[in-house]
Amino acid sequence: MRAIWKREFQACFQSVIGWLFLAVTLAFYFLYYYVYSLSYGYPYISYSLNAIAFIFLVTVPVLTMRILAEERHAKTDQLILTAPVSVGKVVLGKYLALAAVFSVAMVCISLSPLLLGRFGTIPYAESYVAILGFWLYGLTCIAIGTFVSSLTESQVISAVLSFVFLFLGYMMDGITQTISSGGNFVTRILGCYNLTAGLDRLTNGQLDLTAVVYYISMIILFLFLTTQSIQKRRWSASRKKIGMGIFNIGFCAAAVAAVVIMNLIAGTLPTTLTNIDCTASKLYSITEDTKKILAALDQKIELYVIASETSKDEQLAATLQKYEELSDNIQVTYVDPAVSPNFYQKYTQERISGNSVIAVCGERSKVIDYSDVYETEVDYQTYTSQTTGYDAEGQLTSAIQYVTNEDMQTVYALTGHGESSVSGRFKEAIEKMNLGLKDLNLLEADEIPKDCQVLLILGPASDFSKDDAEKVLNYLSDGGKAFITTQYTTEPMDQFQNILKAYGLQLNNGMVIETNDGNYYQNPMYLLPDISYDTVTSEVSNEYVFVPYAQGLTQVQEQEDETVSYTELLSTSEQAFLKEDVQNMTSFEKEEGDVQGPFTIGISVADSKSQAQLIVYTSTMMFADDADQQVSGNNSALFASSVRNLAAETDTSNLIVIPVKSYTLESIVISQGTIIIIGFCSVIAVPILLTAVGIGIWMRRRKA
User: Fold this and answer.
1) Is 386 helix (H, G, I), strand (E, B) or coil?
2) How many CB atoms lie within 10 A of CB 184?
3) d(Cα 704, Cα 700) in Å, to the nearest integer?
4) Residue 391: strand, helix, or coil
């Protein structure tokens, strides 16, 4: 077998075929690599691999058309039938030679993530899983082409039939959709020949073992069929040989059935066993918080998906399947809107989109609109939207908590003093905790409502009246909880300061300037503070939070009865100082009159006597989406954790917030000169060189 492999491998490179195959494959790959990764800065190799999956429809038929058809045409196939090695080993040797040629191209492709990694952060695990998927898909196509080559002695017919076989596998998803959008027995059978389904799963960042098993089993099946096709030529038309032929056909049918059954069994295995999440943000994994919630679930929950089985969102479906596997009390049901168009009206009168999910437990229900499953951002330069995050787990876990918990707590956001509003991811965090959010103007209320679980005071721009301050202090003295942020203003804030002073906090009305390089980003006022470990900060303690334009808490006064305790959450370095006259500052240099740090810029205060609790941050702008995006959602995670710790009486498990899982890493920035050099070498120079070498070898051998 080794001699056959060596002979066929050398034959590929002693003609133009092998060189041309490498040139075309690499040219197409590096063309898309140049566009997606180098020019646009996408760090994902899978974009380029998915884009060139069609190339096997052309390159594989050309590569495989001669491998067995030429032997038959030249009558040298008789040597195969009389060789001292088995037909199976001959077929395997020839196939491995073609696989080796393809693997040479894959080695070159495998170097591209390493090249890209020199310019930024690359998800290497995702990249090499995608490369594995592309390699297995290519090997499967080569096995199919090898089988087709054994059926005829014409290389042209072999190439045409290989194209047809591969095209059917490439288009099978569309073919089954055309036959039946809802799916039936025929489409399920045809779906077994969907060659790209496994590639899609592997290039999405999952090491899907069912896809690996599928491709390996298909390779073995087609190599087995190739062996049977060659052996059949030994038989004559006698009755005895006809009987052997029937046996051979039955044997092939049994092999096909065995492969189908094996893949069906693999498909029934729990995804927790078959899928390994290789994405940087763990897109396809279920967090420990959700697992704990599902493990403690003691009520039956129906998750109705408004979609047919064939039109379902595959990624959402995979997430829902994991929920079913983690709890016997979860039941997922797909409702075809074409069959039951008014089903959703049992639970909401608002129109919902396809693939929306309705969580139902008893009389309680919650609708998760499909538009909330994916997070999108608009690029205002190109006026196009881009999917940036996946929030299925966050929405599903929140819905499950909602339908199983009848106690709805309320958070009030103070208004009337120029406070910031709760919006974007921060509003979503409150909604995910199933907390009601209401605005509260103290001019219209005699007191803060009794059902106020947490009072949000978000950076008042003007001072409180004495009456308003008293209402807040009365609420706190009665065991209230407050989440407070501050912002710099030139107006006096005496009454607002009195609220803080009642709990031993002194706010300096100025802005913190950080001079330690490790504690700011780009601008000395854009702080990256030190994070003290606490239950509030546990989710971000090993990360960064971004705090722009912060004020400083410089004095914490312990009360005489020692009922008030303080926990520092965020702080500056000792090199920080505070500019009080911000309006007239001319530089970031420390000047006379500036207050030397360090400063507390986040603190938790608890009064054991009144049970009051405050969490204070000295920057309102840190709780805006722009700041949150700078640190990949860490600010919103800190906000959610702060509100959760204030809202929870004892156990915070019913106020869990699963953050949006980011789809994309930060774009890679490469100089234009480097892009041009790499692009020219990979897209033009290397393919032309390979083609020229192949033509040169072919012409030299022809003259000889």
Assistant:
1) strand
2) 12
3) 6
4) coil
In the predicted model, what is the mean pLDDT of the chain?
A: 86
Amino acid letter, residue 494: D
CB-side exposure of 190: number of CA atoms within 13 Å? 19
Per residue in 479-513, pLDDT (tens digit) is: 999 999 999 888 888 999 999 998 889 888 889 99
- Residue 605's identity, in one-letter code, is V
User: What is the C-alpha to C-alpha distance for residues 183 and 305, in angstroms, rounded to an integer?
Assistant: 16
Sign of the torsion angle spanned by Cα atoms 159, 148, 203, 104: negative
Distance CA 225, CA 249 (A): 10
**Residue position matching structure tokens 């009337």:** 416
Two tokens, residue 519: 């504690």
Report yes or no: 347 and 302 within 8 Å, Cβ to Cβ.
Answer: no
Other Cβ atoms closer than 10 A to 657: 24
CA 459 distance to own-chain centroid: 34
Tokens of 144: 């199919």
Structure tokens given for 413: 């956001």
Question: H/E/C letters for each residue in 425-475?
Answer: HHHHHHHHCCCEEEEEEHHHCCCCCCCEEEEEEECCCCCCCHHHHHHHHHH
Residues forming a β-bridge with 413: 439, 456
| Per-residue pLDDT tens over the stretch 555-603 | 655 555 578 888 999 999 999 988 887 777 777 888 877 888 789 999 9
Q: Which long-range contacts (CB under 8 A, 24 or more apart) does 526-533 make?
A: 527/572, 527/601, 527/619, 529/570, 529/571, 529/572, 529/601, 529/602, 530/570, 530/571, 530/572, 530/573, 531/569, 531/570, 532/567, 532/568, 532/569, 532/570, 532/571
Q: Which amino acid is at 393?
A: E
Instruction: Write out pLDDT tens, residues 618-667.
Output: 999 999 988 888 887 889 989 999 998 898 765 555 677 788 888 777 67
Place of tokens 């609790």: 613
Give the strand order in the sheet containing 661-662: 374-379, 384-390, 661-662
| Residues in Cβ contact with 70 at an 8 Å cutoff, skipping those fewer than 6 apart | 155
pTM summary value:
0.71
pLDDT tens-place string over residues 515-569: 888 888 888 899 999 999 998 998 888 888 999 999 988 765 555 557 888 899 9
Sheet holding 523-527, edge to edge: 520-521, 523-527, 547-548
**What residues does 521 pair with on adjacent strands?**
523
How many separate helices (H) and strands (E) can be counted in the chain? 25, 25
**Quick one: CA torsion of 546, 552, 555, 561, rounded to 10 degrees?**
-50
Joined tokens for residue 160: 């045409």
Q: Distance of alpha carbon 632 from its chain centroid, rounded?
A: 13
